[in-house]
Amino acid sequence: MSKLLFYPRLAWLCFKLTLNLLFLSVELILADVNKKSLQGIVLFALLAASLVSNLYLWRLKNTPIETAAETPSIFSTENNAGPTKKWTLSPEQVGEQMAFYQSLEAKGVQNKAVFLNLSNISLALGESEQSETYLMKALRL
């Protein structure tokens, strides 16, 4: 719970500090002091630096850690995180596998592995839209 309240407390403290610096600078500017113009400039510079640093910290706090460009797509062909053992199937075997998994789907089997295999077989057959459909079904489970 304390981690959750850290940023609001920090923001409130920064706001109070900025407000106090503003009131102090207004009081010193309005006071009759020998070096009135120099103190006003220094206090204005401190106030501006405080505001700029607060805005900078606010921007850093709200910056996402991972950007969308760095996130790999689930449909990317550059992702080589698949199994290391490759199987080579003949076109007949691919057709048999496709028929088998489609029969499982027709029977109402709702299994992530079934849909992933259907997606891979469809992709191997060049049916990318069907492959994406099966992949989305697998992701929903």
Task: Explain what the structure shows.
With 141 residues, the chain is an all-alpha fold. The chain has two domains: 2-61; 91-140, no CATH class. It is 69% helix and 0% strand. It contains five helices and no strands. The longest helix has 29 residues, at 2-30. The radius of gyration is 31 Å and the shape is rod-shaped. The two termini are 33 Å apart. The model has no long low-confidence stretch (mean pLDDT 76).
Q: Could you give a short description of this structure?
A:
The protein contains five helices and no strands. With 141 residues, the chain is mostly helical. It folds into two domains: 2-61; 91-140, no CATH class.
Per DSSP, the total helix count is 5
Distance from first to last alpha carbon: 33 Å
Share in helix: 55-70%
Q: For the CA atoms, what is the radius of gyration?
A: 31 Å
Q: Tell me how many strands there are.
A: 0
- Main sheet specs: none
Find the structural class using helix and strand composition.
mainly alpha
Shape descriptor: rod-shaped
N-to-C SSE series?
HHHHH
Oligomer: single chain
Write down the overall mean pLDDT. Answer: 76
Total count of domains:
2
Q: Poorly predicted ranges (pLDDT <50, ≥5 residues)?
A: none
- Report the β-strand fraction as a percent range: under 5%
List the helices and strands and how they pair.
Blueprint lengths: L1 H29 L5 H26 L29 H16 L5 H13 L3 H13 L1
Helix pairs in contact: 1-2, 3-4, 4-5
List keywords for this structure.
141 residues, mainly alpha
